[in-house]
Design goal:
Oligomer: single chain
Number of helices: 15
Number of domains: 4
Shape: extended
CATH class of the largest domain: Alpha Beta
Radius of gyration: 37 Å
Strand order of the largest sheet: 3-2-1-4-5
CATH architecture of the largest domain: 2-Layer Sandwich
Number of strands: 14
Low-confidence stretches: 257-270
CATH topology of the largest domain: Nucleotidyltransferase, domain 5
Length: 470
């Protein structure tokens, strides 16, 4: 086989009057090989197969099987052709499948591949595209599990995008993120475009849910959906996801939090959000664009587009609810601030709830309560504290005077200056311990001496649950 360079040299030397023998001696190849390339019977860079193609007898069978089932695994097909006499390896088989283009194109599974794409026109101020970005492997001390959640919004006309971190992807956090990102983008467009996320529409029917319909009416926007399995319809926000993941998330350090803050997502979100906004303004808005033959930037286009966006109304009154753990100082962290609770709850899990648009937040504890007719009982919420909510990331410690006084009283009451117990002192079993040991040695004697008490409350609860006589 001649390489493309040798083929070029052979044709040039032949044009200069060299004989085929001289060219073959010069290039180190056989004369018949040189003659074949000079006559155009062979193609440079392609080796002529001397032996028959071992896949050729099985090509028709594979083509028919893949026509009947385009998704049959190559390993399954390989097992079948081996039983029919194919004697080559699995890599050779898959290479032959690709070379013969045996697997047909499946439009429902690969609707965006292998066909032409068009450029969609996006008039300024028409829509904002939204998407959740799940960020893997957050730092362990964030205490958010395996994924961090980022809501990304993008103006496809100018290319400007902003994003906010959230504790979860439920509807309340979605509404909070929509309001926050819309404010960062400059206002409300005519429509919002989503994929088929369950907090917006029913994924099966594509109908907007009743709860989110109220949100859309509040903000005065239309809800537009991407066609099923066509995520490239909102390609602007998809590209913004790549920028957020590669240019911001990959560089977030493990110790990106205040040293004195409680190890939680709240203290970190305040810093990470600032860094994300700075990245959007410094890098995202400075990207170059060309419109009508003139050079401009994303920031300049977004400033002009902001004039076409509607005013942002007050936040929709959804209720955010997140779980937090009380610290030893009787403090609960939320969005970069700390709020006090009564003492005696260190290590307990409480629920922080905030109604969007209001200035206060509640901290409550949920306790199970027995029910006279239900075996499972009910769960009641007891509000422990209500505080004025401070701006996110302000680093403020909000402490109620009553809580401070009660905490000081509890700490001082438990304060002890006594000398620690001596670890090597002799402490033989007491008389009560010896009596318990004797009962273990003779269980029958203990049962005779112990009075039997029957608890009738169990029977009373069981009687309440019966509907008919046995």
């Amino acid at each position: 086989m001649l390489t493309r360079e040798d083929d070029v040299d052979a044709h040039a030397l032949r044009r200069q009057g060299w004989t085929i023998t001289a060219i073959a001696r010069h290039l180190g190849h056989d004369r018949k090989t040189i003659r074949g390339y000079l006559k155009g019977g062979r193609v440079a860079g392609q080796r002529v197969r001397i032996e028959p193609d071992p896949f050729e007898p099985f090509a028709a069978y594979c083509a028919q099987r893949l026509k009947d089932d385009p998704h049959v695994w190559a390993t399954t097909l390989f097992d079948e052709v081996v039983r029919l006499g194919f004697d080559r390896s699995y890599p050779s088989f898959t290479r032959d499948l690709r070379r013969h283009r045996a697997r047909p194109h499946c439009e429902p599974c690969s609707a965006s591949n292998g066909r032409d794409h068009t450029v969609i026109e996006h008039p300024p101020g028409l829509e904002i595209q939204w998407d959740w970005l799940e960020l893997p492997d957050p730092p362990a001390h964030w205490n958010v599990g395996d994924l961090a959640h980022l809501l990304v919004g993008s103006l496809p006309s100018s290319g400007k995008w902003r994003a906010v971190l959230a504790d979860s992807e439920d509807q309340a956090h979605l509404i909070d993120g929509l309001h926050a990102v819309s404010g960062r983008l400059g206002g409300v467009p005519k429509q919002w475009r989503f994929d088929r996320m369950a907090t917006v529409v029913n994924p099966n029917t594509g109908r907007v849910t009743a709860t989110f319909a109220a949100v859309a009416r509040h903000y005065g926007v239309q809800v537009k959906l991407c066609p099923p399995r066509h995520g490239n319809r909102k390609g602007s926000v998809e590209k913004s996801n790549d920028s957020a993941a590669q240019r911001w998330w990959r560089t977030v350090p493990d110790d990106f939090t205040n040293a004195q803050a409680q190890v939680s997502l709240d203290a970190l979100c305040a810093q990470a959000q600032v860094s994300l906004d700075a990245l959007c303004a410094r890098v995202g808005d400075s990207r170059l664009r060309r419109r009508d033959g003139q050079r401009t930037t994303v920031g300049a286009l977004a400033a002009a587009e902001a004039q076409l966006l509607g005013a942002l109304p007050p936040a929709f009154p959804a209720t955010l609810m997140v779980s937090r753990v009380v610290s030893a100082q009787a403090l609960v962290a939320f969005r970069g601030n700390h709020y006090s609770v009564p003492p005696g709850l260190a290590g307990a899990t409480v629920t922080v709830s905030h109604r969007l648009g209001e200035t206060t937040l509640d901290i409550a504890v949920h306790r199970p309560t027995p029910h006279p007719t239900r075996a499972s009982g009910t769960v009641t919420a007891t509000v422990l504290a209500r505080h004025r909510r401070e701006p996110d990331g302000a680093g403020v410690m909000v402490r109620d005077t009553v809580h401070v006084t009660a905490l000081q009283t509890a700490v001082l009451a438990a304060f002890n200056t006594a000398k620690p117990c001596h670890r090597k002192a002799r402490r033989p079993p007491s008389v009560a311990a010896l009596a318990e040991a004797e009962q273990l040695r003779d269980p029958g004697q203990g049962q005779q001496d112990r009075e039997v008490v029957v608890d009738l409350s169990t029977w009373e609860r069981a009687a309440h649950t019966r509907q008919v006589a046995p």
